[in-house]
Amino acid sequence: MKIGITGAHGLIGWHLCCAYLQEEDVDVIPAGRAEFESPESLQAFVAQCDAIVHLAGMNRGDEEEVYATNVRLAQNLVAACKAAQVNPHILFANSTHSLGESRYGASKRDAACAFGEWAELKGARFTNLILPHVFGEHGRPFYNSVVHTFCSQIAKGEKPEIRVDGDLELLHASDVAALALESIRCTDSDAMNSVQPAGVKMKTSELLAKLEAFHRSYREERTVPNLRNALDLRLFNTYRAALYPAAFPVDLTLHSDDRGWLFEAVREDNGGQTFLSTTRPGVTRGNHYHYHKVERFLVVSGEAVIRIRRLFDDKIEEFRVSGEHHQFVDMPTLHTHEITNVGESDLLTLFWAHEVFDPEAPDTVWEKV
Description:
This protein has about 375 residues and is an alpha/beta fold. It has 8 helices and 21 strands. The chain has helices spanning about 10-20, 40-45, 65-85, 105-120, 145-155, 175-185, 205-220, 230-245; strands at about 1-5, 25-30, 50-55, 90-95, 125-130, 135, 165-170, 195, 200-205, 250, 255, 260-265, 275-280, 285-290, 295-300, 305-310, 315-320, 325-330, 335-340, 345-355, 365. The chain has a 6-stranded parallel β-sheet with strand order 2-1-3-4-5-8, with helices on both faces. It has a 5-stranded antiparallel β-sheet with strand order 10-18-15-20-13, with no helix packed on it. Helix 1 (about 10-20) crosses helix 6.
């Protein structure tokens, strides 16, 4: 099954690409700005797809430009399908704003109408995904969501301000990915034509208080907060993404006297799991990523290089760590990572995760850095 994703390099698109990496029967065909530059390139894109998740659009800017852009993108996609004589299942990332009176909401509403009219004319499937406030790791501050704006400001030591303490309904981008795939796989053509998933409701002030509490605990008190609640874990990982890579590695406080030395490796409120391992010279461990797991690498003795690469990105961050300098690096989610012994003796490393390993749901996916 070939699933096209427009806006594949944006927040939701990137999360869909990450989520579908594990789906053996799914081939993702990403589309960015280049595919929309000409009718021919857009026709070539739609001709490959069994289904298309349409995420490309404009969220911020001049109101009339936002309206015109979003409607034009939908119309161009419909025109490409007609010209290529294909009828893929189209899923449109609509918004709860479409139920309101803003020009952005109107653009979403009218774009959905364009897709609906095409689907009725061609006998094709159209799914209208009416989404609330979507957030996730690596969103753009002041663009995607107030979650990303707050996380960026807090990570930089700035003080966020609330102008209007509005109502939020938070939904993680991975939930959108799961919902889209469920709809594509649904064999009932009359089902899931209009879907409005529920998020977690809270005030803007509640969100800010939660993120600031994460920051105090994680950065000031050096304690990983309680992450047993699914939303808290997702918000915490989004906050951690704003810290990476500038905040790492983190220095630990060494306590020493005539008996020797001691440092605190992990302080946390989750009941996680700790491992100690040796790695021989020249050997690499890792080459995997996690969707939600919080994981810490801490070299106790020896010399190592930790390498981390964000999925679908070529840039590799390197951290040189040593048992001579007591530091840790926490692995960001959706980044493949490895640790290599670059010293001449065995490497002793402490690995910690916020949850006990479950072989039935390991949340550990192989991917070479």
